[in-house]
Amino acid sequence: MVGLQRRGRGEVEALLTGLGRAYAHGVTVEWARYFSGSGARRVELPTYAFQRKPYWADSTPPRNDDPMSGFWDAMEQEDLSALAARLDVDVSALGEVVPALTAWRRRHREHAVVDSWRYRVTWRPIADPRSRALDGTWLVVVPEAFGGAGLLPIVLGALAQRGAKVATVKATHADRAELGGRLASAASGEDVAGVLSLLALDDRPHPIHPQLSYGCAGTVTLVQSLEDAGITAPLWCVTSGAVAVDREGEPAGREAASVSPGQTAVWGLGAGLALDLPGTWGGLVDLPARPDERVALRLCDALSAADGEDQLAIREDGCFARRMVRAPAGGRPAGSWRPEGTVLITGGTGGVGAHVARMLAGNGAEHLLLTSRRGMKAPGAAELVEELTARGTRITIEACDVADRDELAALLRTVPEEFPLTGVVHAAGTAQRIAPPSDLTIDEFAQVGKAKILGAVHLDELLADRDLSAFVLFSSGAAVWGSAGQAAYAGANAFLDGLAHRRRARGLRATSIAWGSWDAGMVDDELGALMKRIGAPAMPAAAAAGVLGQPAVHDESHLVVADFDWPRFTPAYTLARPRPLLNDLPDVREVLDGSGSGGTADATSPVARLASLPEAEQRRELLDLVRTHVAALLGYDDPAEVDAGRAFDDLGFDSVAAVDLRTRLNAATGKNLPSTMVFDHTTPTALAEYLRSKLCGGVQARPVLTRLDQLEETAADLLPEEIESTRIIGRLQALITKLNENLAGDSGADVSSRLEAATADDIFTFIDTELGLA
Question: Residue ranges of the Carrier domain (predicted)?
Answer without folding.
Answer: 620-695
